[in-house]
Design a protein that fits this description.
This protein has 381 residues and is α/β, with parallel strands linked by helices. It has 13 helices and 13 strands. It is globular, with a radius of gyration of 21 Å. The structure holds pyridoxal-5'-phosphate. Pyridoxal-5'-phosphate binds next to helix 3 and helix 4.
Length: 381
Amino acid sequence: MTLIPFNKPYLTGKETQYIADAVALGKISGDGSFTKKCHAFFEEKYGFKKALLTTSCTDALEMAAILAVIEPGDEVIMPSYTFVSSSNAFVLRGAVIRFVDSMPNHPNMDVTKIEALINNKTKAILPVHYAGHACDMDIIMALANKYNLIVIEDAAQAIDSYYKGKPLGSIGHMAAFSFHETKNIISGEGGMLTINDAKFIDRAEIIREKGTNRSQFFRGEVDKYSWVDIGSSFLPSEIIAAFLYAQIENLQDIQEKRLTLWNAYYNGLKEWADTNGYILPNTFEYATNNAHMFYIDCGSLEKRMQLIEHLKAKNILAVFHYLSLHSSPFYAAKHDGRELINADNYTNNLVRLPLYYELGLNEIDYIVNQITSINHTLSSH
Ligand SMILES: *Cc1c(COP(=O)(O)O)cnc(C)c1O
């Protein structure tokens, strides 16, 4: 078997044609026709009050932190088991991060542990929908209402996924999505901020345009544009938006294919996992599965290393991720010292299997066969 990579960016076919179209239109900076088409698609399909493309999910999170008026010493509550940008965006504004443990049976944050961390410095809660599986948003929104907090969904992995029928990214006050090449739909690097509380919309447009009211100027709402607030250059060029639009047009097909592959892994591995102490992804009734990721909880660091090595020897690249942020070199000394046992367990035990559009069911069969033969192989050493 030739090498099976962990990820392979999928081109649906029209990406380069749309980029050529954008070039031919003579406007390749931001907020041209392809950006508008992307915004309209997301707003109509998912009911976001406002969608704004950004150059990354990281940038969308940084915008959200500015919009939430995070000031030095303010506290933000989020899971420890997540990507660094979730917290870095807020630390850039001087925030103190209060990390929440994962659930014992899912990497998502344990919502029952949030309320004890809320105090008069708490400004925001950042639920991360791990693997595109929704956090229990009713509980989070109820806490936000009770204590007057802002909820920013890290929906980087959560495109086209739902919580009790509501699209993820449409529930919190704001949400951040990623179109990095490892996500379901991609633009190389790319992201989106969505806004569901209308009071943030005007300022979001200003922050995204270097602190100017240029968006209002182009709509003819003001007769000149000027520097009115802090901001940065958060908007992507039309070349990025053109690429993304080709992906959007194939969203349904991409999701169906990924789900087929995900189910093939699940069905192929279930019995082996149950009999050998490995745990497959747990799904909740309130959450849909957008097949962003297929992972296995190996139960121990040793078993995970064995599995990764075993697959590598068979030319299959499986990877682990997220060194829990509360014990990272940058944050360990700033963390409040609480033990986060489940986050540490996922840090040590979780492995992600290859999952991308062009992966064949025959390749999944091959991978499943290699995995289910691991115990036999190890014992024969
Ligand atoms: C991918 C990812 C990000 C960052 O996305 P970029 O577009 O690369 O900035 C943030 N949070 C989570 C949970 C992610 O998976």
